Amino acid sequence: MKIVIIGNGIGGITAARNIRKQSDHEILVISAESDYFFSRTALMYVYMGQMKFEHTQPYENWFWEKNRISLLNAYVKSVDFEKQTLHTANGQKISYDKLIIATGSVPKKIGLSGEGLKGVQSLYSKQDLELLEQNSGDVKEAVIVGGGLIGIELAEMLRSRNIKVSILSRENAYWNSVLPQEEAQMISRHIAEHHINLIANTELGKILDDGSGSVKGIITKKGAEIPCQLLLISIGVQPNINFLKNSALAINKGVLVNEFLETNITNVYALGDCAEFENPKLLHPPIEQLWYTAQMQGEALANTICGHRQTYRRGVWFNSAKFLDIEYQTYGCMFKQPLADEETFYWEHSSGRKAFRANFEKESGALRGFNFLGIRFNHPVANRWISEKRNIGLCIAELKKGVFDAEFSKQHHRKIADEFFRQFPAYAKTQKTNKLKFWM
Amino acid sequence: MKLVKNIGLAVFLCCFAIFLCLPFMGTYRLTSQQFESVVSDSAHRAALAPNMQAMFDKSYANNFNFLADYGQALDKTNQQFKDKEAWVKVIHTDYALPLAKISARGFVKEHIQTLFYICFIISSLGGLIYFIADLFLQKKGDTQHKQVFKSGITNRGISAIVFAVFLIAFYILLYQAPAYLSNWVLMVDPLSIKLTGSQASQWFLYGFMYCLVMLVMGLKMLIKHRHSNYQLVRTVSVIFFQVAFAFMIPNILTLLQLPSADLKNIWPLDYTFFFDYHLNDLLSAGLLGYWMLGWGIFLIVVGVPVMVYFFGKRWYCSWVCGCGGLAETFGDPFRHLSDKSIKSWKIERYLVHGVLLFAVVMTVAVLYTFFTGSSTLLGINTYGIRQVYAFAIGFIFAGAVGTGFYPLMGNRVWCRFGCPLAAYLGIVQRFKSRYRITTNGGQCISCGNCSTYCEMGIDVRAYAQRGENIIRASCVGCGICAEVCPRGVLKLENGPENNRFENQLNLIRAKNEV
Ligand SMILES: Cc1cc2nc3c(=O)[nH]c(=O)nc-3n(C[C@H](O)[C@H](O)[C@H](O)COP(=O)(O)OP(=O)(O)OC[C@H]3O[C@@H](n4cnc5c(N)ncnc54)[C@H](O)[C@@H]3O)c2cc1C
Ligand code: SF4
């Protein structure tokens, strides 16, 4: 059987590797971006000179041939689902028995005139990074539109070259669409410490041309003018499926799939950033644009294709990021506001660089999730506690079990517990008394 | 602050330039009295003197001519012995360095103290200022290594090659022709006399410079990692063991005319431990000598396995060891240059275990000779094996390549490919230890920071992205992977052995229905 995968990102490659582990099927991975799989998440480090591009490649180049995974650097122009054939931009025809669409995302556009000017761009692909390298030559000031995960990475990148950076954010604090107010405020303060100008409650109004086809500044919707020689649009991404439009494949924003990652066409599957769930899990987004989810989907789909048909179940939600110097880990479904049946507890360290939040069900005290800023926490522990619906009192009392900070680090679990039981004395009773031994 | 930093650098560079000029300076004139005071062995004196008559009271414009003449005189003397087949009389003692030191005239000799301050103290202060400025320039908690691949010295540029050549040349001279460095040794004479009661040898100079470099570069580590207690404690520990155990204690023991010993140096890294002269030294030194012998053997038999069982090999390699200490301080800026390929891992395993085997065979042979008095074992001369080991491993591998290649192959070339003690510690760590680097469930984003900054060339990411804990013989537990990881995925820890190999991804994956 010949399995063709479009896209050599984490989704496509995880599927390919896991299919190879379980079977002898012929596997071909096609991508127009790079010869070999690389880690998109590390692009920023290449720009900052912390790594070379080759370091972003998780496997050595001989790996693919040794594991009989064929690679092809080509752009797929269209798919003939009837004849089970792909057409590449350079006229090649490639047939398949099973097709996996793992084409990832493209950055969203704002839709203003001037987005085509030199010095206006987004960051998603390797090519974008190369363009950014060219564009940031003698830039003094840059504006980033969108205060999200990629926006802050961009800001850090540019700051490493001493470029003056402003971020336009629609919300009133950094990433306030996802982070609760306290966390968003804390990160906003940290952003200011790094001499990055976060302009809240502001949207892009107009892009200014310098007369020679390059950007020279912007005007916000409120009318303020900000000069810049580089304008970065990072207002999110959307599925990269333009080449599939007007075909028999059912698509909405992304390629529609069921919980088996199957599309409406037999033998055609989609996963990763480009897939959209017809019936998303409660509280989960229909399109999951994460490294982790693409990886898990790849594993699940490989099982299905190799004859162990199984649904993709992502388990307890988790994610992580790093905002300049502050790491962020989140476990469970943590929203900007606690849900109606939830109680929330927030603790912040006096340094303003560490914070902790726990949400739990009001009635039963069952743990719903954690947010950690500047504190590392053990994923399996959080996962177990949340899926067991463990009582919050117990979790807080045993927080130490999950602390994942480096040895000899200052520990905060005691202060967190004291504060929690002060605010929620009712849970003090549920604490177990068995103390942890020092060697545990 | 940038300016202050640059001033610090400029001060250092000026002092360093002066330091580099010194070996080429001064004139030389040897008197026969000086000759007699240096060559203490009367037989040597009698044999050498006739061939050296022409040198006495002759003025030399530089060290090189002087040493060339001495070399000729020595060769001539030894040739005469060889012609007569008087092998035992051949002179192996190195008189070149003390002769060069004593016959030096002129600027250097007259300004020893001043030059000592310039070359060692002021240059160090320059370095310290350069790094202390980072307290203000570099934010606390910045775990990143920005620009590392953009600067020539840390990215195998021309400056890195020049620096490597300098280091290699330094090691070659230090081991093979220290007399050329006589002016450097002269500068530390006063200090040596204070500390040990005798004139400095090239090894005193080396030990002193080693400590100084570790102190200055150690301070840089402390500043860079001031947010991380693990790094702070570990760095203070390696500096302490170098300065106290490798430098001060042995020198003070020498002053007290006791057998000097680096009490933290363990066989087979300390490959001379079982050499006849060393054993005889210890056995003739009374209780202290016996204790030192016992301590050395205790470390090998009990200390290493027990400590590695509880803490991993890091207790030695990145907390105590001198080679490790230099690598973690002076070598830190080059840590990312280690090769991460599977091929180099393969080479590493052959080489490092090969050296361990070599060390064991050599030591068995040496001990055989010690106990039986016979100098051949299975038809091979045990002194021959010993010499080959000392040259190939002790000098070439550990010194010239081990440190000289820092700017080209990373800071742990010796520790990774050559150190027999690391091989021994590693075997225990791999198979019987509570130490591991735990991977945090599914949080890895395969970015590769951890692998890039692993000085031992471990492809940390290969484990982390599969949810596997990192359990590798070579891991020295420096903790930098955990620090540079932007997602908090890695944690060095000691824990129960039974779940050491547990897959962390399995712990968080939802149980799928089939
Ligand atoms: C800068 C940045 C930082 C990020 N950081 C994080 C993070 O910290 N954590 C996290 O969870 N997620 C992060 N993400 C998101 C994460 O990288 C994506 O969710 C993930 O890469 C999606 O993987 P994928 O396999 O679905 O698609 P992709 O990685 O996008 O791979 C798709 C590939 O298919 C190719 N392709 C598309 N169409 C065609 C075609 N027609 N013909 C041939 N080839 C085609 C594309 O060129 C691309 O190479 C980040 C993203 C970016 C851009
Ligand atoms: S363990 Fe951390 S540093 Fe290493 S690849 Fe994973 S996320 Fe990156």
Can you walk me through this structure?
The complex is a heterodimer of chains A (440) and B (514). Chain A is of the alpha/beta class. Chain A folds into three domains: 2-106 and 238-306, FAD/NAD(P)-binding domain; 120-235, 3-Layer(bba) Sandwich (FAD/NAD(P)-binding domain); 318-436, Enolase-like, domain 1 (2-Layer Sandwich), CATH 3.30.390. Helices cover 22% and strands 26% of the residues of chain A. Chain A contains ten helices and 25 strands. Chain A has helices spanning 10-22, 43-47, 62-66, 126-135, 149-159, 181-193, 291-305, 379-387, 392-397, 413-423; strands at residues 2-6, 26-31, 69-73, 76-80, 85-88, 93-95, 98-101, 105-107, 120-121, 141-145, 164-168, 196-199, 204-209, 215-220, 225-227, 230-233, 237-239, 255-257, 268-270, 275-277, 318-323, 326-331, 342-348, 355-361, 367-373. A five-stranded parallel beta sheet of chain A has the order 3-2-1-7-19. In chain A, a hairpin with a 4-residue loop joins strand 14 (215-220) and strand 15 (225-227). In chain A, helix 1 (10-22) packs parallel to helix 7. The model of chain A has no long low-confidence stretch (mean pLDDT 95). By secondary structure, chain B is mainly alpha-helical. Among the domains of chain B are: 27-105, no CATH class; 434-513, 2-Layer Sandwich (Alpha-Beta Plaits). Helix content of chain B is 62%, strand content 4%. Chain B contains 26 helices and seven strands. Chain B has helices spanning 2-21, 32-38, 42-52, 63-83, 96-103, 107-110, 112-132, 134-137, 158-176, 182-187, 189-196, 202-224, 229-255, 276-283, 286-311, 314-317, 322-329, 342-372, 382-404, 406-409, 413-417, 420-431, 449-452, 460-464, 480-484, 504-508; strands at 27-29, 59-60, 104-105, 376-377, 380-381, 435-439, 490-494. Chain B has a three-stranded antiparallel beta sheet with strand order 2-1-3. A two-stranded antiparallel ribbon of chain B has the order 4-5. A two-stranded antiparallel sheet of chain B has the order 6-7. In chain B, helix 3 (42-52) packs across helix 4 (63-83), helix 9 runs antiparallel to helix 19 (382-404) and helix 18 runs antiparallel to helix 19. Chain B starts with a helix and ends in a 6-residue tail after the last helix. The model of chain B has no long low-confidence stretch (mean pLDDT 91). The chains are: A alpha/beta (440), B mainly alpha (514). Residues 6-12, 30-33, 40-41, 43, 75-76, 102-105, 123-124, 150, 153, 240, 243, 272-273, 289-292, 294, 321 of chain A line the site of flavin-adenine dinucleotide. Chain A: This is NADH dehydrogenase. Chain A: Its cofactor is FAD. Chain A: Residues 1-298 form the FAD/NAD(P)-binding domain. Chain A: Pfam families: Pyr_redox_2. Chain A: Keywords: FAD, Flavoprotein. Chain B: It comes from Pelobium manganitolerans.
